[in-house]
Amino acid sequence: MRLASAAVLLCVVVAFATGCGNSAEKVTLGDIEQAAFKTEGVGTARVEFTGEVTFNHDHAQRFAFKGHGLTDFRTESAKFNAVYTFPNALQEAIKQQFGGPWKANFLVDGREGIVLYMRLPYLDGQLPGGKTWLKADLVEIGKRYGLDLDRLKETRRSDPGLMLAYLKSAVGVRKVGTDLVRREVATHYSTIVDAETIVEETPKDQQRAMRKYLDLMGIKTYPVDLWVDRDGVVRKVGVKLEYKLPTGEYVQMKLSEEYYDFGVEANIEPPPAKRVLDVTPRSKSDDHAPRRLNS
User: Fold this and answer.
1) Which residues are bridge partners to 107 per DSSP?
2) How far apart are CA 178 and CA 108, in angstroms?
3) C-alpha distances in Å from residue 82, one per residue of 18, 70, 103, 157
4) Half-sphere CA count of 113, side-chain side, radius 13 A
5) Hey, is 13 helix, strand or coil?
6) DSSP 14-70
7) β-pairing verdict for 133-137 and 276-278
8) DSSP 259-277
């Protein structure tokens, strides 16, 4: 379960670092791609999210999560808190052991690479050297799959519209209707994203590795819903992913994010190096290489 949860967490984090009607009017990507530029242009926002993860179609192996935080589109960084809800028996055991629900704090530093910091309050006092945060270098982890996440970030920076370019698929983008998102009128768009589209939007030297990774996870297509307000800014994103882990477990994940309070002050800095334990898995050749911890 720990391995499966780590893989799910990686998907959730990457999702952060990358944000009712009955009509079925078809639109082109050009009708909404400017939302990517405008959303990044506001700089920062608060985010509230909910989601759930189910393993092997088994309700007894389902857990839900919700939380809130800040995101900085300029540095591709974010920090957020999450609370998890597990099946009844496990939830009760967690309550008895820790006095309440299972909680976690996360920080994604996108200024140099993509670095994830995670604090689990129940581990306070149990990590060596007074450490309170765990660190995972997602760029290093990506290399294990032949992916250079730095290269993917470079491409995204050079084309802000790429955030929504993944919505261009064989079935196109549909205008579903309009909804209220935090009392703001927003246009609801929907599509089914084809994994091959993601490969095609990847730098050519990364396409083979990206295709291999998506094949390994068993990801072929997935639905995406997007809500854009009257100012052309993304207000809500909904994603549903279904994939298989290398261990053979089947995973279904639903994630919904709402953005608000645009332009809010966001000072997203990594925790002090002396409080951080680096748990990034590395190849043998890197075992003795010095690693720099942001302070």
Assistant:
1) 79, 117
2) 32
3) 19, 12, 6, 28
4) 18
5) helix
6) HHHH-------EEE-GGGTTHHHHHHHHT-EEEEEEEEEEEETTEEEEEEEEEEEEE
7) parallel
8) EESTT------PPPGGGEE
What single string gives the DSSP state of each residue in 77-123? EEEEEEEEE--HHHHHHHHHHHSS-EEEEEEEE-SSS-EEEEE-GGG
The CA angle 132-135-136, to the nearest 5 degrees, is 155
Question: DSSP assignment, residue 137?
Answer: E
What one-character-per-residue DSSP string does 216-275 give? HHT--EEEEEEEEETTS-EEEEEEEEEEE-TTS-EEEEEEEEEEESTT------PPPGGG
State the 10-residue block means of pLDDT for the chain, 295 residues long. 36 38 51 74 92 84 91 90 83 69 88 88 84 90 74 51 47 83 92 75 78 76 86 90 80 91 92 93 53 38
* Tokens standing for residue 138: 């997602």
Q: Report d(CA 41, CA 64) in Å as an integer.
A: 32
- Tokens read off for 123: 């581990």
* Beta bridge partner(s), residue 191: 224
Name which of 80, 71, 83, 53 is nearest 17 in CA terms.
71
Q: Model pTM?
A: 0.74
